[in-house]
What we know:
Chain A contains twelve helices and 14 strands. Chain A has 326 residues and is an alpha/beta fold. In chain A, the strands form three sheets. A seven-stranded mixed β-sheet of chain A has the order 3-2-4-5-7-6-12, sandwiched between helices. In chain A, strands 9-11-10-13-14 form a five-stranded mixed β-sheet, with helices on both faces. The longest helix of chain A is centred in the first third of the chain and has 15 residues, at 6-20. Helix content of chain B is 41%, strand content 9%. Chain A: Pfam families: Transket_pyr, Transketolase_C.
Amino acid sequence: MAEVTLVEAVNLALVRAMEDDPDVVVLGEDVGINGGVFRATVGLQARFGPERVLDTPLAELLISGLCVGMAAQGLKPVGEIQFMGFLYPCIDQLVNHASRIRNRTQGRLTCPMVLRTPHGAGIRAPEHHSESTEAMLAHIPGLRVVIPSSPERAYGLLLAAIRDPDPVVFLEPTRIYRAAKGEVEDNGEALPLDVAFILREGRDITLISWGAMLKETMAAAEALAAEGIAAEVIDLATLKPYDEVTVLGSIAKTGRCVIVHEATRTGGFGAEIAALIAERGLTSLLAPVARVTGYDTVIPMARLEQKFMPSVGRIVAAARKACQFN
Amino acid sequence: MADGGLPVIARFEVRHRNYLAPDGSINRPLPAFASDASLLASLYRAMVLLRNFDRKAVALQRTGRLGTYAVSLGQEAVSVGIASAMREEDVLLPSYRDNGALIWRGVKLEEILLFWGGDERGNHFSGPVQDFPFCVPVGSQAPHAAGVAYAFKLRKQPRVAVCMFGDGATSKGDVYEAMNFAGVHKLPVVFVATNNQWAISVPLRLQTASETLAQKAIAAGFIGEQVDGSDVVAVRAAAEDAIAAARDGQGPRFIEALTYRLGDHTTSDDASRYRPEEEVQARWKEEPIARLRAFLARQKIWSKADEEQLAAECHERVEAAVERYLAAGPREAETMFDHLYADLPEVYVAQRRQLAGEGDG
């Protein structure tokens, strides 16, 4: 098995999906000869031709809208938006069309599309390149929102997303595109969607996160272990629909929970999980559910972005406080 | 203008097509299909049926049996003319005022009533199964049309996507983005702007400073043509040419159908608040149904008896559809979860049960 980076795993999954299924089409800005600004689509156009790997005009709404039309004809388009900050012109298409065309036509037309975009801060990118507004997407009925946190899950979940008969927004954690390395067997096997992954088992506290923040969350679990606190770490992976069973099962075991996301706090997806636990896990709770999140600010540019993002220290402190609560 | 002697590097033209004058006389030699009297009669029948259907739909809305409804009054020639030039295997991407096109394509009247009656079952066309349902957000179906046409091209299918929208939609980036892409890839798609002069209360002069909407195609690299949208012969002829060219691999076309919305925007609108009555009355003199009827009468292929028989047929067909619509019965609440996803994720099963009254959710 080869060790690959997360972005290379994305590329492997795209190649595999295109090999397996002639209906898979990759489209976006610079995805062709340039192989994508992060090189996720490198080599695809040479291999599959410019009709299946097409460079679109610079128009994000168009990319998402084309995907809807192609998907309604039974193609499996995989659109790329270069950065999440440029995804917003696609929201109209996602909310009003992609996510509901199956429902509004009572299954007559469907939308098996994937829209991929880098997610999150931490690469010293210019303004509008560091967004993590996954909660906005997770609010949309009929959509799937998936965020891998390792090369293995990037490969398996992207294959699942492409094969899924419904629209999926696939958010790729920019910060660990190359920093995360792992062995990926290119065997064409998908990982399940709608399922959370327990990355580390523990009895004392549950740490829930997704995407790049799992790096700090896992480091925090290590630090807590050194203090004698056994943290269970959950990679939520699919945010819409999300795996309530795994979350509640873990809370029933540990009684304490810290949710970690780099997106801003108010209305963030952590609030949804906290509400779930309050509604259906309250009797298990031994301490208030805590959130460690980005601040309710505009994501600052490079000089301050590290201050914005949750640190290992903030996660450890929140977990320690939860464990000391009685 | 060649300022300082600079050379002109490009010139463009926009053509306007019209055959029938408002009094039913002929302006120029008719296209070949116009020699087929039965086809002309079927176009006429479709327009009259649409007007009858509209009248009934408004009556249903006024009596609380239908939701908000958008009538086609005055622009029947556009949707009928366009749809009549399509083949069954082509795909229509309509806006919410294109009932005439849907009906021509085979969507049942009761399905259209179900849609406007607030029931998703209305979008489950019993045919044609690949056509899109009405697009309610203005113009956002244009990128879909480009995507559909791209699929046709990729699969080398001789099919054409036909995308209909109003004049207001041409102000949106969606429409330009789709046209631009369609031009780049020479896609088999025909864009049709029904220019009925009013986007709810906003007149065309506040919508655009363009002399025509047809010229918007020029920026996207293909032909834009203006037609008299109250002349169904002109609309159909333009659509035939554009669809044939698209099917032949010549790329997209744009048709601006110049017409007039004689009615309100929808049953929730009162156009008298923003639109002078004299303007509307003047436009009644140009409306498409009387125009074609006058032409058919001149040609001696339509009689008073034909008219009476058609009126009876339309009445019968519309009333029967209304009966079926009203008999469709309510839907169970939990069906709102049907077709949300291909398979309902386990996590939403409890919500569905709650709606069904089977759990405490």
